[in-house]
Design brief:
The protein is of the alpha+beta class and 743 residues long. The chain contains 17 helices and 21 strands. α16 links the parallel β20 (693-697) and β21 (714-717). The radius of gyration is 56 Å and the shape is elongated.
């Protein structure tokens, strides 16, 4: 869609919306004004009808007062003039006064006489039931001894409205005279009265007795159709309660006039909007759009010829468009100068992108391993505990004893897998101890004999007597396993893999070059473990990328590209290095360099039998994993501990505070529901004479270092070897005793 057409559409839509707003605004304004006029007229008519009906009640009340203050009425109430009723209340007189019923009572409220005008030509006495109702209406007047109470009210009886008035009978010549009785007059507001009232108001009127006053207002309108509406005026009795409604039928001439006026105004607004839209479109097209089209054509021509075009835009006039043309000319001049700069920036961006991708891969690995570490380590801890229990229950000569020992080694190997990934993602420090490389090689060879290297032959040659280093045995075993698996894959599962253990003195003698990978090592003696295969070798184009994370030449599904990058990181954290020597068609040889250790103590074996000296000591063991709780609690109880188990920190705190025991030590996990290990330690440390607390968790690295130092006597990383746990607990309880060898 062209810009010109968009501008036209924008003008038309904008003016159209404004016109619509004006049309509906006018419609609302006119309608609201005429509605207000209708409501005001209705209020006036309702007030007039109520006042006229009230005037009838007051006229009837004046008649009652005239009779009540007549001397003959006083005499009749005192029993001295019995002809008073016959002389004043006959059929013609009651018809003239429009009185339907009359009741006269003495000072005690006893009826003296009652008359009711009906369809018969003669007056009839009021029925006893009716008499009781009328006497009830006279009760307030009789109750006032001063005789000044005047009753004026409306009453609904049998679907009919009655106007009721009553006054006390008093001597007019004696102002202080008391009441001698009372007169009540009642007018039925029947159809004849309603017709007369309609003629007086000059509009149809009817009475409504259904839910009078239900809207809570004195008057309200109820539309009937487009030409009529009903006005409801509420009538209230002497107690202020609504008894009926006068319904006046009003015409809606104002509403019809408002409709006509609003339609006329909307038509005029629409016409004005259309004329304004046409005028704006013409002016916008002539003054702006055509010049923009010319500018667009020139810019398009320059774009097609390329950024090196030397043509300049020619925009006549002295306004913003001409200034825009000059700005584009300056921009074209800068394009040529910036072209070379952009190419250089693109090359730098590509280099940075490669580095960013490598960083993202490393970060992704750290997040992945951190997410599964807790559950994985808990499972390993439980397996280790149950296998250790089974191993201790069997005699060393039992056929399954060796199998259980191999299972323990396998759990340490699985622990190593997780530690390597965590070490790669978080750069965590290795667990260093004295290790004999020959023992490590033999254990690895036995492990690989299960089929990890398939049909390859492993040949081991040791050329050193002292093969001791300070290292993490699990991490070193993982490096060695990765190299052996890579060698077997390079030879497709068949061939000879050589493991050679030798030593090296750095720096080398003058004139002799250091072996591959050893150039950056510090001077000293190193043990060198070589893993060589007879495969096809590594292509030269892959040598520079071999240690990159996620780089692999294996088929999809056979490798992740992490093995060598992890191995390189492990060797670096052991103050060593990894080197490579390879020739195409001659195989590859990886060399692991580790500083030689001269420690006199004997290296600790990978598995050592445990012994207990903690008879009767109370230990609170807290872990949310049921298998870990049961397995390690059984191991600790076998060592002589009195173990109390808790599923989380809240349960442990309850046991700590409510059982009344004196706890010698608390062993807790970190990640638990409701209350974690740090929260539990903070509560326990706040008590008087708190016991030492040991943290055993796979998430210890997530706890700030200052809390680890202040809250916990020792920190162990899951999964934990049983002997390691026993030594740690012994050291916490007896810190002055020397640590066990190799720990």
């Amino acid at each position: 869609m062209k810009l010109q057409h968009k501008a036209w559409a924008l003008v038309l839509v904008t003016v159209g919306l404004c016109s619509l707003a004006a049309m509906f605004g006018m419609r609302w304004l006119v309608g609201d004004s005429f509605s207000r006029l209708e409501r005001e007229r209705a209020a006036r008519e309702g007030d007039r009808a109520s006042r006229l009906l009230s005037q009838q009640v007051q006229g009837l009340s004046a008649t009652v007062r005239d009779y009540a203050q007549w001397v003959d009425a006083v005499s009749f109430a005192q029993g001295r003039k019995p002809s008073f009723v016959d002389d004043n209340f006959d059929t013609s007189n009651m018809g003239y006064l429009r009185i339907s019923e009359v009741l006269i009572v003495d000072a005690k409220g006893n009826p003296l006489t009652s008359l009711a005008a009906g369809s018969a030509p003669e007056l009839m006495p009021v029925s006893p039931e009716r008499l009781q109702e009328l006497r009830a209406l006279l009760a307030p007047v009789i109750a006032d001894p001063s005789g000044r109470t005047l009753l004026q009210t409306y009453r609904v009886q049998d679907g009919r409205l009655d106007l009721v008035t009553a006054s006390a009978i008093r001597d007019p010549d004696r102002p202080d005279d008391v009441s001698h009785g009372a007169i009540l007059m009642l007018r039925h507001f029947d159809e004849a009265e309603l017709q007369r009232f309609s003629e007086l108001l000059m509009m149809p009127v009817r009475l409504s007795f259904d839910h009078p006053g239900h809207l809570g207002e004195l008057t309200h309108l109820a539309p009937v159709d487009d030409k009529h509406e009903d006005l409801h005026a509420v009538l209230r009795d002497q107690q202020g309660q609504p008894v009926a409604e006068l319904v006046l039928s009003l015409d809606r001439q104002l509403f019809q006039a408002a409709q006509s006026l609003s339609l006329t105004g909307m038509a005029l607004s629409a016409l004005a909007g259309l004329l304004a839209s046409l005028l704006l479109v013409v002016l916008l097209d002539r003054l702006l759009l055509r010049r923009l089209q010319a500018l667009h054509r020139e810019v398009q021509d320059i774009t097609e010829r390329g950024p090196t075009a030397t043509d300049r835009l020619q925009i006549p006039g002295k306004d913003e468009l001409s200034t825009l043309g000059e700005g584009i000319n300056h921009l074209l001049e800068r394009v040529q100068r910036d072209a070379q700069t952009q190419r250089e920036a693109h090359e730098r961006h590509e280099a940075l992108q490669v580095q960013l991708m490598q960083s993202q891969k490393t970060e992704a690995l750290g997040r992945l391993t951190g997410g599964i570490a807790h559950d994985f380590n808990n499972s390993l801890a439980a397996i280790t505990g149950w296998v250790r229990l089974a191993s201790e229950d069997l005699d060393t000569e039992h056929p399954s004893h060796e199998a259980l020992q191999q299972a323990l080694k396998a759990t340490r190997y699985a622990d190593g897998l997780m530690r390597q990934l965590l070490a790669f993602g978080r750069q965590s420090a290795p667990k260093l101890q004295q290790v004999h490389l020959s023992h490590l090689i033999e254990e690895t060879r036995q492990m690989m004999a299960s089929g990890l290297t398939r049909e390859c032959e492993l040949v081991v040659e040791c050329r050193v007597d002292d093969d001791e280093v300070v290292a993490d045995p699990t991490q070193l075993q993982q490096v060695l396993v990765n190299l052996l698996i890579n060698a077997a894959d390079a030879m497709k599962g068949k061939g000879r893999i050589e493991l050679l253990l030798d030593e090296l003195e750095l720096p080398p003698p003058p004139g002799q070059a250091p072996p591959p990978g050893a150039a950056e090592l510090n001077p000293g003696r190193y043990l060198v473990l070589q893993v060589c295969d007879r495969g096809p070798g590594i292509p030269p184009e892959h040598l520079d990328r071999l240690f990159e994370p996620f780089f692999t030449t294996k088929p999809k599904g056979r490798g992740t590209g992490l093995g060598l990058s992890v191995a390189q990181g492990i060797m670096a954290r052991h103050q060593g290095a990894i080197g490579l020597r390879s020739e195409v068609g001659e195989g590859a040889c990886f060399m692991l360099y580790l500083p030689e250790s001269r420690h006199d103590a004997t290296a600790a074996p990978l598995t050592t039998p445990g012994g207990g000296s903690d008879q009767g000591r109370q230990l609170l063991f807290v872990d949310d994993d049921q298998s870990v709780r049961h397995a390690w609690s059984a191991l600790l109880e076998r060592k002589g501990w009195q173990v109390t188990r808790s599923r989380d920190g809240e349960e442990a705190w309850a046991q700590f505070t409510q059982t009344g025991k004196r706890w010698d030590l608390v062993l807790t996990d970190q990640s638990m529901p409701r209350l974690d290990g740090v929260g539990l330690a903070l509560r326990i440390r706040a008590t008087q004479s708190p016991p030492p607390i040991v943290l055993m968790s796979g998430h210890a690295n997530e706890v700030p270092s200052d809390l680890l130092q202040t809250l916990f006597a020792a920190v162990l990383h899951k999964p934990v070897d049983a002997n390691e746990l026993e030594r740690a607990l012994q050291k916490v309880l007896a810190p002055d005793e020397p640590a066990a060898a190799g720990h």
